Amino acid sequence: RRIVYYMKDRGYLAGEYEFGLQITDKAKDILKKREIELLTITPQKVWDKKWRIICYDIPVSHSAARRALQEKLRSYGYFHLQGSVLITPFPCLDDIKTITAAYDVADYVTYFEAINLMNEKVMIRRFQKRFPQTKF
Question: Which one of 23, 53, 125, 134 has the lowest number of neighbouring Cβ atoms within 10 Å?
Answer without folding.
Answer: 125
